Amino acid sequence: MSIPSFIEGYGAVRLFRGAFAAPRDSLRAGARIRAQHPGEGKVLPSIREAIRACGLKDGATVSFHHHLRNGDDVLRAVMQEIAALGLRDIRVAASSLFPVHAPLVEHIRSGVVTRLATNYVTGPVAEAIAAGALSTPAVLQTHGGRARAIEAGELPIDVAFVAAPAADSFGNLNGVDGPSACGPLGYPMVDARHAARVVAITDALSPHPLASIDIAQDLVDFVVPVDSIGDATKIVSGTTRVTEDPVGLAIAATAARVIDASGLLVDGFSFQTGAGGISLAVAQDVAAIMRDKGVVGGFAAGGVHQGIVAMFRQGLFRTLFDVQCFDLAAVASYREDRGHVAMSASLYANPASKGALVNHLDCMVMGAAEVDLAFNVNVTAVNGGAIIGGSGGHADTAAGAKLALVTTKLAAGGAPKIVDAVECVTTPGETVDAVVTEAGVAVNPRRADLAARLAAAGLPLVDIARLRDLAADRTKGAPRPQVDPQGRIVAVVEYRDGTVIDVVRQRRN
């Protein structure tokens, strides 16, 4: 897709030039600090009072995190008060947005919110963006790209609002105590360190000090106790369960064989999967191989779910590095298990850091909405501009892992998933090593070494173009809605280094 050199409402475009083309050296921006004098308290009676105390003005940027996922109620509550105070032209910088954040749509339509940056978005907010409701293009980042942008000063935050499952009166916060426990607070760790002001909103205010601390008091300006910050049971999404579909299970079994044949599945093995049904099944199959071979991995990482927790508790990994929990079993493990440790989004995936953990992954297993002949992957927009999510950690982990595997069926919902060219590039093909389907495994031509290993192991190798043809046959060549090349740009897709890898244009009526 053609990307202009200047996008109205976004600015000058730095075009994507390659996954590793960014300069190694970068600058870290400082944070504005508000000193607390002896005797000053931090606890305020309401969100409105906290907004006033922070001096929030028109045009400001406020940030939120998504550890409560579809159970979060903090963004709604804060934006309701911002609107009631008459503030306008606000930029919302949220690590992810879910259907529960539907009230944000009205703030977009009324002009309270005119700018939006997020790593993942589904539900009514995604639909509103695709329809052109936002006056400027939304910026879709990666998890690591967001952390990099905040630390570099490219995404300055005026007030970070942290949904804190537990807080003490001095402003220490954690995610393991209280009725809304959600696990490690990996995303707001970055926001809290770099925002001009930090407000913790909690439904479990404790005397000082908390026994466990994710974000320390020296980073927090104010604490607001409320009745509820949300519903932690809704951390679990409908897709966070092992697939029972025979085709999906067969794909998972093949993917586990690919990992075994890669030569990476030895002591010290490091691993991450997404939370989709096939990815969870891959974790189960890899666990069985590790037990059979007596392999003890070094670490598993990322968003942690019950499948990875089970492997850890079986002794298959020495450590879990956790940026967010995908289910309550992971929350319990973070609370109880020595060796299950928190990491910030920056430690996880910031490409400008001194040691992003993704760079030490042996294997990452991820899904796809579309894969094309160049191995580019789309998990952002389909059907002529319908926004379905975004990168999250997809592009970050693909760039860092020694083996980046995409698992996908050939077709779904009557549409092919292996195509000539993806509608929107989320993850560049140069960072994807192989695609595993029910019809076989396509290996990126860049990885002749991997293809040789898989062939020697008897795995069914097939050219990506053959998979494209099979996918078309399955769907009988069903036409796909096309992107309107003249449509207004409603979202800018940034690669992890801040360059623009693609855009999303407004859907045709």
- What portion of the residues fall into strands of 2 or more residues? 15-25%
Give the helix proportion (percent range): 25-40%
The protein's oligomeric status is single chain
Q: Give average pLDDT, whole number.
A: 95
- Quickly give the structural class: alpha/beta
Task: Explain this structure.
A nine-stranded mixed sheet has the order 12-10-7-3-4-5-6-28-29, sandwiched between helices. The chain has an eight-stranded mixed sheet with strand order 16-15-14-13-17-22-26-27. α7 (246-261) packs across α8. Helix content is 26%, strand content 22%. The mean pLDDT is 95. The protein contains 14 helices and 29 strands. The protein is an alpha/beta fold and 509 residues long. β13, α8 (277-293) and β14 form a beta-alpha-beta unit. It starts with 5 loop residues before the first strand and ends with a strand.
List the helices and strands and how they pair.
Blueprint: E1 6-7, E2 11-12, H1 47-54, E3 61-64, H2 74-84, E4 90-94, H3 104-110, E5 113-118, H4 124-130, E6 138-140, H5 143-152, E7 159-164, E8 166-168, E9 173-174, H6 188-194, E10 197-202, E11 205-206, E12 222-225, H7 246-261, E13 270-273, H8 277-293, E14 297-304, H9 306-313, E15 317-325, H10 328-336, E16 340-342, H11 345-349, E17 363-366, E18 370-372, E19 377-378, E20 381-382, E21 386-387, H12 394-400, E22 403-407, E23 411-412, E24 415-416, E25 418-419, E26 434-437, E27 440-443, H13 448-456, H14 464-474, E28 489-494, E29 500-505
Parallel strand pairs: 3-4, 3-7, 4-5, 5-6, 6-28, 7-10, 8-11, 10-12, 13-14, 13-17, 14-15, 15-16, 17-22, 18-25, 22-26
Antiparallel strand pairs: 1-2, 8-9, 18-19, 20-21, 23-24, 26-27, 28-29
Helix pairs in contact: 7-8
